[in-house]
């Protein structure tokens, strides 16, 4: 499947050039090129195992490329000091582990470490950033609670608070709504959308196509370690492409609230039962 790119052209804040990524076996991502526009809300979607998280970790300087490079503001990210990168870029990984006994506030405070130097240690600015991050994630009342005693959704919000306290202009978020109930999922996505409107560049990996299409200014769709479509949600999310990439027969209709693409799956169980009956022809909508 060839890459379809319907984006405009702006200077990238982050770029992958000829990126090949893996963990010792066959590469998961091969020869991938991608540019992240400054000020956009980019969402990466695709089926499990397609390389979304592997790519995001490489963009965040966690995964070392087998080949190729990642450029942050035009310079190879691996040639830059980790603290310098962290002041420009914050990464929320998938399923992070908190140190034993750490409180919510102490975890959020770790986001301030990139801003500290020998000459600049703890300051009122750090306190303000932490307080704001806890307020935005709804965790102010749980600031002194041990992270290990929280529910899965509360723990996820604690990690988001750490990323927000880091106060970097570029956010990389790997499945940020994991473990959250649907109300908190939308609360968090609305928060990221607001940060984007305030000028942050946001890149997120999401599974839910409806959420991705609702909040993204740009969708990058992956399959088999490659980008297969790249552009505005209404041009990327089509019934034919969802079928080709996810193996799901569906209709794509406008969301009644936002007008963004909404995927309505066909009845897979009904179709399978019909296909199993002798002499019954299964008819699929186009």
UniProtKB/TrEMBL annotation:
InterPro entries registered for this protein in UniProt: AAA+_ATPase, ABC_transporter-like_ATP-bd, ABC_transporter-like_CS, P-loop_NTPase, Siderophore_ABC-ATPase
Subcellular location: Cell membrane
Key word GTP-binding present: no
Assigned keywords, A-Z: ATP-binding, Cell membrane, Ion transport, Iron, Iron transport, Membrane, Nucleotide-binding, Transport
Classification via Pfam families: ABC_tran
GO biological process terms on file: iron ion transport
Protein name: ABC transporter family protein
Species this protein is from: Nocardiopsis alba (strain ATCC BAA-2165 / BE74)
